[in-house]
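Standup notes
- HV: blocked on the assembly model, inputs below
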Amino acid sequence: MSLRGRDIISIKDVTREEMLAIFGEATSLEPYARSKIDVLKGKVMALLFFEPSTRTRLSFETAMKRLGGDVIGFEEPSITSMAKGESLMDTVKVVENYADVIVVRHPFEGAAKAIADAVQIPVINAGSGALSHPTQALTDLYTIWREKGRIDGLTVLFLGDLKYSRAVRSLIQGLLNFKVSFVFVSPELLRLREEVREELREQGTSFVEATSLSQELIREADVIYVTRIQRERFVDPMEYEKVKGSYKLTMEHLRYARNDLMVLHPLPRIDELDREIDKTPYAKYFKQVFYGLLVRMALLKMILT
Amino acid sequence: MSLRGRDIISIKDVTREEMLAIFGEATSLEPYARSKIDVLKGKVMALLFFEPSTRTRLSFETAMKRLGGDVIGFEEPSITSMAKGESLMDTVKVVENYADVIVVRHPFEGAAKAIADAVQIPVINAGSGALSHPTQALTDLYTIWREKGRIDGLTVLFLGDLKYSRAVRSLIQGLLNFKVSFVFVSPELLRLREEVREELREQGTSFVEATSLSQELIREADVIYVTRIQRERFVDPMEYEKVKGSYKLTMEHLRYARNDLMVLHPLPRIDELDREIDKTPYAKYFKQVFYGLLVRMALLKMILT
Amino acid sequence: MSLRGRDIISIKDVTREEMLAIFGEATSLEPYARSKIDVLKGKVMALLFFEPSTRTRLSFETAMKRLGGDVIGFEEPSITSMAKGESLMDTVKVVENYADVIVVRHPFEGAAKAIADAVQIPVINAGSGALSHPTQALTDLYTIWREKGRIDGLTVLFLGDLKYSRAVRSLIQGLLNFKVSFVFVSPELLRLREEVREELREQGTSFVEATSLSQELIREADVIYVTRIQRERFVDPMEYEKVKGSYKLTMEHLRYARNDLMVLHPLPRIDELDREIDKTPYAKYFKQVFYGLLVRMALLKMILT
């Protein structure tokens, strides 16, 4: 299957069949993740990062280089000609003369879509606004699929900030292509947005919500997806201090876990994951980083060839 | 024709014959602007950008990579060892040990020339001070030549800031190699500098100056070259508010234009070009960006081989 | 000899035999320092520069590219996800999924070692804290070896800041693998640290210390290694003004020099080297830059193949 010329703006743009094709391609590219294949020789990827994200940038950059392609671009708006008042749309219309694909990260929702509409080359959204981060979602889905051999039938527990995390939102939308049981554990203030709950209901997907991580919930989880709780979400700092400890995953919690539980995290993390967990077989968050490289290699190859 | 080992500091360094050779090379490299040719494999270009210019940097970087070469360098002085007091000349004498060509952008007039004198590898000026921007001039000239099939005999109208724009100054100097009729339209305060008018007179070139864009001037123009008027040029902000609207090119103006008028702009722009113009066949400023890539590919190839 | 998979954290990690092997490899790679060899094709080097150092960064980057490898990374902490609170160790554990070798520069002593312990790919220290800069030391040693044909038996005079310069400290440790006479000339305040003198004594190495550069000391020197004195080391600015002139090497000094004296400097410099010296055959500091490129090419090749 090819995705030739396709924009990847939202995880909703990708069907279940396409996801499985991407997973297959990602797996077949694994031998080249530590060497090089010249499949994208002569292709240039432009990284336009209007907000910093070293991890995501390095993942895309490595993916393109391992495939034999070249990379141009920038991170941070301050060094672009934005400073002179050039509009975003002019910038991307300049860049489409140089590159074969644009990978964009932008603080505003809708920026990636607007860029895709303005240019004739394919655009990949590398995180925009509070909602979309499709390549993170594909990474998370691939990690589950690769490690569990399937996604259907699993119970996925989300822990932490379910309101503002674009990784959570994108992953939920991706999981809706599969038959999954959802469990959401968060402080009241950071509960899943009503529109996402509505989406789940519309699809006839049942889900459980809780404000604390009980033994029982842990016991039933195949996957625990942990996210960071950001202090700045709270108007009252005392409120933050009160809740933050309750959404930290500890070794104590894992005493109740299934043997094959996997713990994921989109990174970066602060202290919501006991560092002791890193050494356990539950921890898959660094492997997730490697799988993210494979997924981005697969996407670039399928979009550009 | 080769320009092997040549410095390109000012557009005046380039003869008419060399310009035509560069245009020919640029045209013949077009098939590789969307793929790759290994003609500069083993060559390293150092981009030393002592002031930010994303557009120009990405153009050079893409040009080098499409030709199979490698790129090193920096943008912005703050991240260089300048911060430790290292002099500019020491920096470039270090860099000539790494690179085969230096592309420099610097806020000071004369910096590119001084660097070229200090090092033994060729130096290309990517914009220095208020006067020189030779690769922009070559881009503009090539765009006219490519789209019109000739430069001789055309009427070129410049609109906007004719005093401080280095793109305008460099293009005028480049056009002096051809038989061109010049028209200059600007606020009194941003008129062409006396020394440039002197240069034009010395060459026996007649030119027209005006402070507003009349129907008649538009009617006679083959090319309208628009530039930005920067607020900071005016001591009195009221003065700026008064003039800025008068130097904006609008759809209304284009009612009087020839069918084959071309509108150019060195970009970035603010609001001196009605965005509606983008959709008309007059607008060549994004094509100009693509031609700039071809010109830079041609220059790098001719200087390094 | 291969150094396959080895970390290079301190110059002390490298034996005399290994140094000589690196020097041999560096010399044999010289033909490729101005072209390219595909010996590291398929390898990715991650440059993690948590403090800016353009010169060292460009040297490593050029070395990797001349060997056919690819480069990813960042300079300056502000653009990393550090800003979000991600720990250094998480960052490097992410990056080891992308790269085959990490080159790190960090303001804290011990950072390079801690990173090497955390990841499974080799780590090269490109300058950390006040003590270690092993690739600079190898560069300096190679420059002496290459230009003099030997290191044993030479008299090496260090001039300037001997207390805080990590280049000085690393070079002294490297020279301890050879039979060298040491001379140290510095202001009282910037004398060699007691622990380094102790190290010299333990090795039975005799050395001379002085606070001014006499004719006699110059006469006996085979190598003068000059370093910058930084104003910020002095609590009392008057103190700085008093001493700075005394540690500047001038043409006057060189009247007493041997014909084959070589003057080295790790760069960047401020004004501790009379610029007139640049034109004399004593000046080897720009050649030192080129030799630094060869040494880094040799290291990367020996560690990665």
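- HV (later): unblocked. Residues 79-85 of chain A have pLDDT under 50 and may be disordered. Residues 264 and 285 of chain A are 5 Å apart (CA to CA).
- Next: hand off to the docking folks.
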